[in-house]
TrEMBL record:
<dbReference type="InterPro" id="IPR000994">
    <property type="entry name" value="Pept_M24"/>
</dbReference>
<protein>
    <recommendedName>
        <fullName>Methionine aminopeptidase</fullName>
        <ecNumber>3.4.11.18</ecNumber>
    </recommendedName>
</protein>
<feature type="binding site">
    <location>
        <position position="184"/>
    </location>
    <ligand>
        <name>substrate</name>
    </ligand>
</feature>
<feature type="binding site">
    <location>
        <position position="241"/>
    </location>
    <ligand>
        <name>a divalent metal cation 1</name>
    </ligand>
</feature>
<dbReference type="Pfam" id="PF00557">
    <property type="entry name" value="Peptidase_M24"/>
</dbReference>
<dbReference type="InterPro" id="IPR036005">
    <property type="entry name" value="Creatinase/aminopeptidase-like"/>
</dbReference>
<feature type="binding site">
    <location>
        <position position="113"/>
    </location>
    <ligand>
        <name>a divalent metal cation 2</name>
    </ligand>
</feature>
<comment type="similarity">
    <text>Belongs to the peptidase M24A family. Methionine aminopeptidase type 1 subfamily.</text>
</comment>
<dbReference type="InterPro" id="IPR002467">
    <property type="entry name" value="Pept_M24A_MAP1"/>
</dbReference>
<feature type="binding site">
    <location>
        <position position="113"/>
    </location>
    <ligand>
        <name>a divalent metal cation 1</name>
    </ligand>
</feature>
<keyword id="KW-0479">Metal-binding</keyword>
<keyword id="KW-0378">Hydrolase</keyword>
<keyword id="KW-0645">Protease</keyword>
<dbReference type="InterPro" id="IPR001714">
    <property type="entry name" value="Pept_M24_MAP"/>
</dbReference>
<feature type="binding site">
    <location>
        <position position="84"/>
    </location>
    <ligand>
        <name>substrate</name>
    </ligand>
</feature>
<comment type="subunit">
    <text>Monomer.</text>
</comment>
<feature type="binding site">
    <location>
        <position position="102"/>
    </location>
    <ligand>
        <name>a divalent metal cation 1</name>
    </ligand>
</feature>
Amino acid sequence: MFRRADPEIQLKTSEEIGKMRAAGEIVARTLDELRAAVRPGISTLDLDAIAESGIRAAGAVPSFKGYHGFTGSICASVNEEVVHGIPRADRVLADGDIISIDCGAILDGWHGDSAITVAVGALAEDDRRLMEVCEESMWQGIAQLRPGKRLGDIGHAIDGYIRSQGRYGNVQEYGGHGIGTEMHMEPHVLNHGKRGRGLELVEGMCLAIEPMANLGTRHVLQLDDGWTVVTRDAERSAHFEHTVAVTAEGPRVLTARAENREKIAALGLPDPG
């Protein structure tokens, strides 16, 4: 486990956090555009084109495009696809689907990374509840990002909330991560853990908090395309993510969207700016 002073943990100044917020705002606007574009009949490749156009028009670069050979500007994961779904022309959304959209942007060398799950047309009650549980577990984890807390506190809060809500699977093979001048940095942030254990959080850390919750078991597998992760039992999955800075005032959500402000206020978190 990394110690507080470990040089592999990148700490940001307040000015650098401001630059990450600027990147995060581009991601937030892009996700708003994609949410508005989701409808039956649109392909995930169409959504990818909207994202890339919006990100580049804002003067930024898509984080995902070309990352280890990934072909999309977003990850578009439909129904039983958990994460890392590759945008495709033949993956056309239908009424009753749900889609998880993960989006990242680089602005002036700094990254923002965020994800939402969106209903396509009519939303079944089971799916609505799954999405609600997953998103709230993210906020429970975010609330732990305060100086003096530990990485284990984040995972404990996420897993504890998911477990308290019924028989949902909390995916353990994938999790959050440090972020800054690179999209994926130390430390890895588990979505399960023990309170008071792990790396101590200090001011200037920036972490992407991203739970994935399934309607069935937590077990997943990767498809032969080398990217797409699906639930092993073919049940549906939801994914939510925000990039968050650890500050003296509390967790600052750098990818916050307008719709998040009420929740941020209710949790007593600092204004994203």
